[in-house]
């Protein structure tokens, strides 16, 4: 593994997005470690009612997601205003939610993890202890508004190893 240190010229929110099971938490954690910055998992900011709703096999509605996304936007503002960079693992399924995060302070970099539904389903089945059941994967893909007209979002394909994805993401930052 490359152990070069990378630095960010200004406080930056690195948002790693994708459907559940795409590996966004793992990549965001790896990037945070390599960059020496904080890591946040958007799932930790869901109210218990949202988690219970998903755990029961029901997808969230946009009305349920919006207050959660606003909490995330506020947290990004707090961190960036304090001069701290961070990574955020965040589904980012809806364009309006991505736009809300764009309204937060400071520089933002978005990475969108993409892959086949079959590969992501395999990963979801293999993981344990997560509140999101594999049965909701179709609803994740149904809710996803692909960021095809959003040039600030960098796609990364999950067929690559986590080490390769980390290096691909880091290549977008100046050493």
Question: Would you give an account of this structure?
Answer:
This protein is of the alpha/beta class and 175 residues long. The protein has a single domain (12-170), classed as Rossmann fold, CATH 3.40.50.300. 42% of the residues lie in helices and 15% in strands. A five-stranded parallel sheet has the order 2-3-1-4-5. Helix 1 (24-35) packs across helix 7 and helix 3 runs parallel beside helix 4 (95-102). The longest helix is centred in the middle third of the chain and has 20 residues, at 62-81. The protein is globular and about 40 Å long. Residues 1-5 have low confidence and may be disordered.
Q: What is the structure about, briefly put?
A:
Belongs to the gluconokinase GntK/GntV family. By secondary structure, the protein is α/β, with parallel strands linked by helices.
SSE topology string: EHEHHEHEHHEH
pLDDT under 50 segments (min length 5)? 1-5
Strand order of the largest sheet: 2-3-1-4-5
| CATH structural class | Alpha Beta
Average pLDDT works out at: 85
How many H/I helices? Answer: 7
Strand content: 15-25%
| Through-space gap between termini | 16 Å
Alpha carbon gyration radius: 15 Å
Instruction: Say which CATH homologous superfamily is assigned.
Output: P-loop containing nucleotide triphosphate hydrolases
What oligomeric state best describes the polypeptide chains here? single chain
Number of domains: 1
CATH-assigned fold name = Rossmann fold
Largest beta-sheet characterization: 5 strands, parallel
Keywords: ATP-binding, Gluconate utilization, Kinase, Nucleotide-binding, Transferase
Pfam families: AAA_33 (PF13671)
Pathway: Carbohydrate acid metabolism
GO molecular function: ATP binding; gluconokinase activity
């Amino acid at each position: 593994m490359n152990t070069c240190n990378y630095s960010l010229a200004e406080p930056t929110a690195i948002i790693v997005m994708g459907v559940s099971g795409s590996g966004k938490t793992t990549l965001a954690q790896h990037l945070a470690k390599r960059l020496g910055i904080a890591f946040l998992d958007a799932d930790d900011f869901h109210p218990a009612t949202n988690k219970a709703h998903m755990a029961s096999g029901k997808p969230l509605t946009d009305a349920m997601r919006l207050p959660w996304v606003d909490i995330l936007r506020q947290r990004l503002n707090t961190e960036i205003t304090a001069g701290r960079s961070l990574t955020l693992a965040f589904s980012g399924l809806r364009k309006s939610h991505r736009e809300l995060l764009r309204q937060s302070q400071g520089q933002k970099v978005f990475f969108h993890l993409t892959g086949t539904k079959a590969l992501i389903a395999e990963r979801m089945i293999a993981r344990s202890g997560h509140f999101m059941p594999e049965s909701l994967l179709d609803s994740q893909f149904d809710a996803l508004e692909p960021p095809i007209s959003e040039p600030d979002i960098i796609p990364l394909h999950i067929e690559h190893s986590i080490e390769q994805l980390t290096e691909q993401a880091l290549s977008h930052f100046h050493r």
